[in-house]
Amino acid sequence: xxxxxxxxxxPDFLPRLRCGVIEFPVHHMxxxxxxxxxxxxxxxxxxxxxxxxxxxxxxxxxxxxxxPGNRQITGLGRGAPTSNKVFLVEVEQHAGxxxxxxxxxxxxxxxxxxxxxxxxxxxxxxxxLWGLDSGVIEALAIGPHxxxxxxxxxxxxxxxxxxxxxxxxxxxxxxxxxxxxxxRVDLFLQQPVGAKTGKLLPTGKAQDKVLGYDASxxxxxVPMVIALASQFGKTARESIxxxxxxxxxxxxxRQVWSAAGQLMGLRRGDGQPMSLDELGRSETIxxxxxxxxxxxxxxxAVRYFTPQAGHxxxxxxxxxxxxxxxxxxxxxxxDLARGLPAAGADEAEIAVGIENPAGILDTSIVARQDGDTLxxxxxAYRRSTQILLxxxxxxxxxxxxxxxxxxxxx
Length: 410
Hints:
alpha+beta
């Protein structure tokens, strides 16, 4: 599509050869409290093995097997799950309008496995800016501009909205966990219920007893296990470092999320049920959190796990899931949340503030009570984004098959 003078020239999405080394084009970006790469989907190999090898090179993940303690000093990953994300993005036409199509690859510093099963709400906030900066979607006129994003991992449609100021800059905001003010993005998850399981309550209950712990299994934007902090001897106000240093606690929550994952019927990418061992090793599903009473201006307090590692703030997909659970009578979150109105028969937008280690995540749920069910139309959250770097990454150790594919693209 045509761009305007507000945008740089359309970059070359093809690799290049420089000093005998093939270099691959990337946007390294921050979206919310996550960082990672955004790549044009057409620029990566269609063959899954070659595609995954390319992503491991770019992020500094192990090329095979396990590498505990890997600091990813050979790539752009930063060790934590929140900084090991790669989005492959392209544009499609839908109902006469362009929309972005996103596919997330979740990598890990300590092993070569790549998870293609989930979306990332934080990094999704980088995609509209990527599209504008790279020229694959039209430049903004002055004022607000929205574009839909269809995520292939989950099928969820998100509407991303940014605004251009009269001087050509983007309207900016600050968010918890990110110092300073950066381009503001409002994201609306459309029809987010059952993103992975097809059900609002995958177990059929608002609350289950899992290995002796009270927990609610909810699937809004992402499948998540919500447990009472007090039953683990916690308050949901501890630092993440303190929680991760408690080996007995980390062992207990791993057992709970694994057992709950089986109750939820979570499946691998090939459609087969995940085993307890697979759930215990999973980097992505189910998400897990402990909740407690709010101590400040929020409605509830949370400490969130991805699930293997504690989150420095709160993933927005998990935040939207928890916000929905706060409005659902019978869940452990509803019983703890304070100051929230009950959903009525008429659809309304209800704001939910969630206290987390970085501050308060402001979310809103557009829903109505339909008999015994909360009918959720959308879940919204506000993020900020920035481009950390745009350029080319040299691939020093590309395998002969990957190198051959890349050379054909020159």
